[in-house]
Amino acid sequence: RKEVEQDPGPFNVPEGATVAFNCTYSNSASQSFFWYRQDCRKEPKLLMSVYSSGNEDGRFTAQLNRASQYISLLIRDSKLSDSATYLCVVRGAAGNKLTFGGGTRVLVKP
Amino acid sequence: NAGVTQTPKFQVLKTGQSMTLQCAQDMNHNSMYWYRQDPGMGLRLIYYSASEGTTDKGEVPNGYNVSRLNKREFSLRLESAAPSQTSVYFCASLVGGTNTGELFFGEGSRLTVL
Question: CA B79, B80, B85, B88 torsion: positive or negative?
């Protein structure tokens, strides 16, 4: 089993709609969690951290479910510019190991 | 402010050739990373260095060696390149802090092994 797994998609989303997707992780001792965004052929960039109590950043909401070992990302009122690959990242229990999931591709269409 | 700089940006090798990918950061970060990304896939960790003088294997270390030359520089070496190592290689450094996860990436090095 991979350490961090994501549905590769693509999720085809009408502009203005809501989309949500999850990321599961295998190590229950993982410390912290993040969502990154990657545009085609570009380097990934941090979108947001995921806090235990859940957190929002504008139209983006991230949640953590430690019992079931997954994190989620919800995008409200989708914009065409939200089309990208969303990568979840898990920081290990010890040290600074950061493991990426395979990414979820989101395509927002007019 | 350059951030993370990788060289070269593009390279074509023949099977069996060796090469070194260079990476330097000017943000005084302790931790540095090498990832590879194959088409349509996420990033896989090759090696990382939590601090100057230390290196650790990631998910896919076979066929690679690394050197943390100093705090700024972290190089990745392919001793005998294979077609399976055709990929985009990203170097990154980590903002300090116990629970941070903000990686700053270079622009990537696109390697083709024929």
Answer: positive
Q: What are phi and psi of A81, to 5 degrees?
A: -75, -10
Q: What is the pLDDT of residues A2-47, one digit of tens each?
A: 899 999 999 999 999 999 999 999 999 898 999 999 998 899 999 9
Q: From edge to edge, which strands make up the β-sheet containing A60-65? A: A4-6, A19-25, A70-75, A60-65, A55-57
Residue keyed to tokens 């055709």: B86
Q: Does any CB of chain B come closer than 8 Å to the CB of residue A93?
A: no
**List of chain A residues whose C-beta atoms are within 8 Å of the C-beta of residue B90:** 43-44
User: Taking CB atoms and an 8 Å limit, are A101 and B42 in contact across chains?
Assistant: yes
Cβ of A95 within 8 Å of Cβ of B99? The answer is no
State the pLDDT confidence band at A93, using cuts at 50, 70 and 90.
confident
Strand partners, B48: B33, B56
Q: How confident is the model at residue B102 (pLDDT cuts 50, 70, 90)?
A: confident
Q: What is the 3-state secondary structure (H, E, C) of A9-39?
A: CCEEEECCCCEEEEEEECCCCCCEEEEEEEC
Of the residues B5, B35, B43, the best mutation for testing chain A's interface (the one with the most A CB atoms within 10 Å of its CB) is B43
